[in-house]
Amino acid sequence: MTLTSAPRWHAVYRMTAASARDAQQRADGIAVEQSIEYPYELVEGTPFAEEICGRVEQLSPVTDGRWEAVISYPTEAVQGELVQFINILYGNSSLQPGIQLTDIRLPAALTRCYTGARYGYRGLRQRWHVPTGPLLMGVIKPLGHRADELADMVYAMARGGIHTVKDDHNLHNQVWAPFAERVTRCVDAVRRANAETGGHTAYLANVMADGAELFERAYYAQEAGADGIMLSPSIAGWGTVRDLARRDDWTLPILLHPALSGPFIRYPDTGIAAPIYNGLLPRLAGADGVIFTGGVGRFSFPADICRRTQAACLRDDLPLPAVMPCAGGGVTRSAMPELRRLYGADITLLVGGDLFRCGSDLTANVLALRESLARAYAD
After folding, report:
1. pTM of the prediction?
2. Which of 51, 206, 212, 310 could form a disulfide with 325 if both were Cys (CB 3.0 to 4.6 A apart)?
3. Prior bond to 142 cis, omega within 30?
4. Is residue 3 part of a domain?
């Protein structure tokens, strides 16, 4: 009896283990736990063990006490579903200490099941009228402002020529700035500013909400004329991102925010490696851009992880569009030279609090930010 026929796909894990024997036992345990989740001895010698169960393809030491296991899984167990794919990748093993998912290797047969971004990196550059060079993204904040005050911020930033401006991730439907009023006012503000300056600033609305309300807000933003939307997959779910992205009547870019992703990506011996969580998963889900914590500021990650995350967003060895990498979490004008060395020009730099720290004139602050960027990236 043959249960599977498509090529298997591979996941790479790093594990803590005291010896080679311990490492083999841990790898075998992951292979079983992430597939059949059933006593292996009860299926040994059957097609369930040979075809359905995860298979340890390679096991090698990395450092003292750390081992790397390459485990393959049957493509049919996923059937192109994203939530099941993530479940097999790391579902139950996330409950065990000392196991980190570090890489994913997909055959074409499985990758073809995911259509990827509607616009992606290149499409966003076209929509935002910035064919080359780094981009700037501003944030309206803080929580507690009225809708008209937030719209004034959008207007001022757009007057200064910022490439994109987005809602802060904690702006939802508060009494001070109800969602519909905020989005409508901000869309009008960015349109007025663009008409006056001849610019092309884009406004992205945060549409996070409970359950189906998220989709209602997303479609409201689309109908109101927003230039894109933002949501947080660690809170809303990766399946939600994919559901929205592949709908025929959906037309806007989707930007992902990293809220709540810390437990997945923050620690070196557990979770999901940041380049996978913030690079590959957004591409499979159909997002167009992803915000990740950059190499400066209060959430700074090691420089090599930041570079690898950017590379995962842009890598061209997949039949899926690259997505826009957006580095944030404390970007400042003074950090521009360091950010150029870290990322080069294929990046969007997300600037929040620093735009307000420089004074109340946001238009002047954006102009100063653009000057700092131009000096840092001058040849």
Report:
1. 0.96
2. 310
3. yes
4. no
Residues 289, 339: Cα–Cα separation, whole Å: 18
Residue after which a domain boundary falls, among 47, 81, 111: 111
Residue with tokens 């025929």: 248
Q: Which domain holds residue 77?
A: 9-111
Instruction: Please tell me the number of Cα atoms within 13 Å of 14 on its side-chain side.
Output: 16
pLDDT of 279 > 60? The answer is yes
Phi, psi (degrees; rounded to nearest 5) at 260: 75, 5
- Total domain count, the chain: 2
The label of the residue with tokens 């074409």 reads 108
Residue 253: count other Cβ atoms within 10 Å of its Cβ. 26
Question: Residue 145: how many CA atoms within 13 Å on its side-chain side?
Answer: 18
CATH of the domain at 260: 3.20.20.110
The pLDDT, as a whole number, for residue 2 is 63
**Nearest to 93, CA basis, from 69, 64, 110, 114:** 69
Q: What is the CATH number of the domain that holds 38?
A: 3.30.70.150
Report pLDDT digits (tens) over 146-159.
999 999 999 999 99
> For residue 145, is it within any domain?
yes
Over residues 15-52, the pLDDT tens digits come to 999 999 999 999 999 999 999 999 999 999 999 999 99
Cα–Cα distance for residue pair 160/361, rounded to 1 Å:
10
C-alpha distance from residue 278 to each of 32, 164, 256 (Å): 27, 20, 9
